[in-house]
Amino acid sequence: MTLAFTPPSLALSVAKPPEGDHWLHEIKFDGYRIQAIVENGSARLMTRSGRDWTMRFGSLARAVAALPVASAVIDGEAVVLDGKGVSRFEMLQAELKLAASDHIVLMTFDLLHLDHHDIGRRPLLERKALLVDIFARRSPTHGRIHFVDHMTGNGRKMLAEACIMGLEGIVSKRGDRPYRSGRHSDWTKTKCANRAHSLSWATPHRKTRTPRRRPVARLLRREFAYLCRQGWDRIQGRRGASHG
Question: Residues with catalytic annotation?
Answer without folding.
Answer: 28
